[in-house]
Amino acid sequence: MKRKAASQSSFEDQAARKRIDTLLSLSGAAYCAGEQKLSTRYVLLARKIAMRHRLKIGVAAFCKHCNQVFCEQGKTHKVRVVAGKAYRVCGSCGKRRMVGKAKVVKKA
Ligand SMILES: [Zn+2]
Questions:
Q1: Any idea where the domains of the chain sit in the sequence?
Q2: How many angstroms separate the CA atoms of 44 and 66, rounded?
Q3: What residues sit around ligand 1, an ion, with C-beta below 5 angstroms?
Q4: Measured on CA atoms in the order 66, 72, 75, 81, is the torsion positive or negative?
Q5: How far is the CA of 77 from the centre of ligand 1 (A)?
Q6: What's the gap in Å between 13 CA and the centre of ligand 1?
Q7: Dist. CA 43 → ligand 1 center (Å)
Q8: DSSP string spanning 54-101?
Q9: pTM given for the model
Q10: Which of 9, 30, 55, 65 could form a disulfide with 35 if both were Cys (CB 3.0 to 4.6 A apart)?
Q11: Helix-strand-coil percent breakdown of the chain, rounded to 5?
């Protein structure tokens, strides 16, 4: 099967994008309602749909390692600055990821 180009967007991809957005918003609402397992399940389903349709989800929305949704700073995640770089630390598994893209330093 031929791989599709990243720029192509079909009707199916648009429907998948809607489902992903819905699932991510539902996961935030479920976390606020105290249903942590349900919220991680919603994030997992959204990631599976994104993988099937080769779509991107913003990494700021959830933890890649444990599918914890990042809806409330201080409870679900913390932001720490180490050596001038900002990191997002997951509240449940403790993994940290850099906020934004890493700057490439060019050697002269
Ligand atoms: Zn995590």
A1: 11-98
A2: 9
A3: 63, 65-66, 68, 90, 93
A4: positive
A5: 9
A6: 27
A7: 12
A8: T----GGGB-TTT--B--SBTTTEEEEEETTEEEEEETTT--EEESSP
A9: 0.78
A10: 30
A11: 40, 15, 45
Query: Is 38 a residue whose pLDDT tops 90?
Result: yes
Estimate to the nearest angstrom the gap between the alpha carbon of 31 and the chain centroid: 15
Three-state DSSP at 32 gives: helix
Checking if the pLDDT of 58 tops 80, the result is no
Burial annotation 73-84 (CB, 10 A radius, 16+ → b, else e): eeebbeeeeeee
User: How many angstroms is it from 85 CA to the middle of ligand 1?
Assistant: 19
Distance 104 CA to ligand 1 centre (A): 26
pLDDT category of residue 43 using cuts at 50, 70 and 90: very high
- CB neighbours of residue 9 within 10 Å: 13
- Residue 66 tokens, joined: 């444990």
| C-alpha to C-alpha distance for 90 and 68, rounded to whole angstroms | 8
For 50, which DSSP code?
H
